[in-house]
Amino acid sequence: MIREDGPRLTLEGPLTLATVAGLMDEGRRLVAAADRVVDLVAVTQVDSAALALLLSWTRAARAAGRQFSIVHAPAPLVSLASLYDVDTILPLGL
Question: What's this model's pTM, rounded to 2 decimal places?
Answer without folding.
Answer: 0.93
